[in-house]
């Protein structure tokens, strides 16, 4: 069986794994993990340039100019997706999205409007509103949302280019908490479904893909692993395995055993 | 002494209010990324980035809540009382 590549808003991606750029011990480790993951889309955050710190950063800075995250991302191969992480209102997220568009190379945004500090769960009402505004401004909007099929449908109606339901809270590593909802969201959606957040280890990514997700987005599971580069490799394989398993059509679950070897022709019977 | 500004009316009122001191350079007070910041004179966004040693190709600039397109960095002047935000990409998920 041949699979068609992941396509979002008319753009195709080789990999169904999308990864973050946060929380790595160094930019160099991040670059190696990116390479190992095979991902061709990475997320970045938009933040104020540190003005007071005039000294170049410690890790591999060249004389004069301060080093930039982008120095460690091969933008010829990697599509850079700015996020609106940390925004708690639609206005804040819209402003950040516009700045991200100016700082970057595209009109794409991973839209986050957070509703609660402790869980980092999205404020879906504000998220839908911000999606509507940004779509009108020509953005390709990928909203991070609850694992709620109705919220996902409303986001799609608002013009989202994909929907990105969480598997579990951001950075929690709990795995897919509501597999059934992910399956329903896949069934409801005409746009790609990207499970974003909650993955802890490779099997979680595989499960997300087996449920029918078109892609998985993760940051902490790789960056926070003891060996991020090896975990990135594991995630690459997990996403491929999960996707192939999904396409293969798994066997139904049964209560009792069914023998794999013939019951006929047993010696001595 | 020359007060250059095409955007904000603030420098004119400043000029009228303060006595002329021809032998001293002007001090321009701006708010840069939420913090007070001083410049010797009004300057373009390009000059400001240069002064701060920031690569203009890697940042987005908001001037008095309006995003400035990169090609307009040389012509937009940062003057007294202005609010400037300079952002870039950092690691995130």
Q: Uncertain segments of chain B of ≥5 residues (pLDDT<50)?
A: 1-17
- Helix share, percent of chain A: 25-40%
Q: What is the residue-mean pLDDT of chain B, rounded to a whole number?
A: 83
* Main beta-sheet strand count, sense and barrel state of chain B: 5 strands, mixed
Bulk shape of chain A: globular
Helix content of chain B: 10-25%
Largest sheet of chain A: 3 strands, parallel
| Largest protein-protein interface | A-B, 40 and 27 residues
Cα-to-Cα separation, first versus last residue of chain B: 48 Å
DSSP strand tally of chain B: 7
Number of DSSP helical runs of chain A: 8
What is the H/E string of chain A? Answer: EEEHEEHEHEHEHEHEHH
Beta-strand percent range of chain B = 25-35%
Q: Shape of chain B from CA axes?
A: globular
Topology order of chain B in helix (H) and strand (E) letters: HEEEHEEEE
Q: Report the radius of gyration of chain B as a whole number of Å.
A: 14 Å
- What's the number of extended β-strand segments of chain A? 10
Produce the secondary structure layout.
The complex is a heterodimer of chains A (269) and B (93).
Chain A: E1 6-8, E2 11-13, E3 17-19, H1 27-37, E4 41-48, E5 79-82, H2 90-103, E6 108-111, H3 124-136, E7 140-145, H4 149-157, E8 164-165, H5 179-188, E9 194-196, H6 202-210, E10 215-218, H7 220-223, H8 228-248
Parallel strand pairs in A: 3-10, 4-5, 6-7, 7-8, 9-10
Antiparallel strand pairs in A: 1-2
Chain B: H1 10-17, E1 28-32, E2 35-39, E3 43-44, H2 45-51, E4 59-63, E5 66-68, E6 77-78, E7 83-91
Parallel strand pairs in B: 1-7
Antiparallel strand pairs in B: 1-2, 3-6, 4-5, 4-7
Description of the structure:
- The complex is a heterodimer of chains A (269) and B (93).
- The termini of chain A are far apart.
- Chain A has helices at residues 27-37, 90-103, 124-136, 149-157, 179-188, 202-210, 220-223, 228-248, and strands at 6-8, 11-13, 17-19, 41-48, 79-82, 108-111, 140-145, 164-165, 194-196, 215-218.
- Chain A is α/β, with parallel strands linked by helices and 269 residues long.
- Chain A is built from 8 helices and 10 strands.
- Chain B is of the alpha+beta class and 93 residues long.
- Chain B has helices at residues 10-17, 45-51; strands at 28-32, 35-39, 43-44, 59-63, 66-68, 77-78, 83-91.
- The interface between A and B is medium-sized, with 40 and 27 residues.
């Amino acid at each position: 069986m041949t699979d068609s590549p992941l396509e979002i808003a008319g753009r195709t991606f080789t990999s169904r794994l999308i990864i973050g750029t946060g929380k790595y011990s160094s930019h160099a480790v991040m670059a190696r993990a990116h390479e190992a993951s095979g991902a061709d889309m990475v997320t970045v955050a938009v933040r104020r340039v540190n003005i007071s710190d005039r000294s170049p950063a410690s890790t591999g800075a060249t004389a004069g100019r301060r080093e930039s995250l982008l120095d460690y991302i091969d933008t010829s191969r990697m599509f850079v997706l700015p996020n609106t992480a940390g925004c708690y209102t639609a206005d804040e997220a819209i402003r950040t999205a516009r700045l991200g568009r100016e700082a970057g190379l595209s009109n794409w945004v991973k839209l986050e409007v957070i509703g609660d500090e402790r869980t980092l769960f999205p404020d879906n009402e504000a998220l839908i509103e911000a999606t509507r505004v940004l779509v009108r401004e020509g953005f390709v909007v990928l909203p991070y949302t609850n694992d709620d099929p109705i919220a996902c449908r409303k986001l799609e109606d608002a013009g989202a280019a994909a929907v990105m339901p969480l598997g579990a809270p951001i950075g929690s590593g709990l795995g897919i908490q509501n597999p059934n909802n992910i399956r329903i969201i896949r069934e409801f959606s005409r746009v790609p479904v990207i499970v974003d957040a909650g993955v802890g280890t490779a099997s979680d990514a595989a499960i997300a893909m087996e449920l029918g997700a078109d892609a998985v987005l993760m940051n902490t599971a790789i960056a926070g692993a003891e060996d991020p580069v090896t975990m990135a490799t594991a995630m690459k394989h997990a996403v491929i395995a999960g996707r192939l398993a999904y396409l293969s059509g798994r066997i139904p679950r049964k209560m009792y055993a069914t023998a794999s070897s013939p019951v006929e022709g047993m010696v001595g019977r | 002494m020359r007060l250059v500004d095409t955007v904000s009316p603030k420098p004119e009122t400043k000029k009228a209010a303060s006595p002329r001191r021809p032998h001293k350079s002007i001090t321009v007070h701006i708010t840069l990324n939420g913090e007070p910041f001083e410049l010797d004179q009004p300057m373009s966004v390009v000059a400001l980035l240069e002064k701060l040693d920031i690569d203009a190709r890697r940042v987005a600039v908001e001037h008095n809540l309006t995003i400035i397109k990169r090609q307009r960095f040389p012509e937009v002047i940062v003057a007294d009382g202005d609010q400037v935000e300079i952002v870039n990409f950092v690691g995130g998920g």
